[in-house]
Automatic annotation (TrEMBL):
The keyword Iron does not apply. This is GNAT family N-acetyltransferase. InterPro entries: Acyl_CoA_acyltransferase (IPR016181), Bact_Acetyltransf (IPR050832), GNAT_dom (IPR000182). It is an enzyme of class 2 (transferase). Its EC number is 2.3.-.-. It comes from Deinococcus antarcticus. Keywords: Acyltransferase, Transferase. One of its GO terms (molecular function) is acyltransferase activity. The keyword Transport does not apply. It comes from the Bacteria.
Amino acid sequence: MDAAERPIYAGWVAGAVERGVYRGFFIEKEGEVVAGAGLVRLEWGPSRGDPQAYRARLVNVWTHPDWRRGLGRAVVQACLNAAQEQAVKVVNLSTTAMARPLYESLGFQASPAEMRLKLP
């Protein structure tokens, strides 16, 4: 995300927190945030084979390079625990090749069926 987009996203996050659909988790070391992650609860609606009304999306997962010793796993697990507390059964995310092993170790699986269309 470039610098011009950050205030727009920050405004959205603030509103989502107020609406109760975004939960953020952070780890602080030596007075600085060194890891964080967010969970967005989405009203999805029941679908074929899935009666759940909600899903969640894992976002903003970040760990400072000097602290990559399990902290990413800890903030992601906090998000997954929050999803379970909200009775959410499906959590989606986008990832990089570097982070994929972390998510796979937590049970995430790649979905060959997902497609995307960006409308003008």
